[in-house]
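note to self — DONT lose this again. spent like an hour looking for the file last time. sequence + predicted structure for the chain T wanted, 216 res
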Amino acid sequence: MKYEAVIFDLDGTLVDTIDDLRASVNLALAQQGFPPRTREEIRAFVGNGVRKLMERSVPQGTPPQVTDVCLAAFRAHYHTHACVHTRPYDGIPAVLEALRAAGMKTAVVTNKTEAASLAVVRHFFGDRIGLTIGQREDLPRKPAPDGVLLALETLGVPASRAVFIGDSEVDCATARNAGLPCIGAAWGFRGRAVLEAEGVQVIADQPSELTALCLG
């Protein structure tokens, strides 16, 4: 095999989560009388964790304490509504099955909270993902490499035998910081142009391309 382990981003790479994120953000905003955000705005705001998502979603100049209230409302709603509209991208389940059949180790490393990440991964992928590491207090968020390095240590795979797959500039930087090659997911939240601008050399336009890129 070309690699021994594949580390995936989650939102925008394995699953399209925008509509559920938007619903929870807009519920929190509505409780404060703030205007709702569009799907494209939420798409542009995600990638750096839920606090940053809410900071970008509230109107400019919103006091931090009000942002905190919105964030708490978002968390409470999203905790029980993370899988309402969210769906895996077409072809992703088949890719995961192919990787598992080949003996590839897999993990998710994401800036989504660990509880929400585990809920989404378990709901859609079951045991087809070997390890999920989400945002938590003892790990710096991506693009810090800590989550990826922890995943590799847990899986028992050196960085030289692993690849990172993600859709955003945060993911590109994470791969660089962890010393891993990066495969760009052009179907995700940012698109091919952003990935090319980040210097990603290998970009997949469809999930179905990942099997060959990972297995060689």
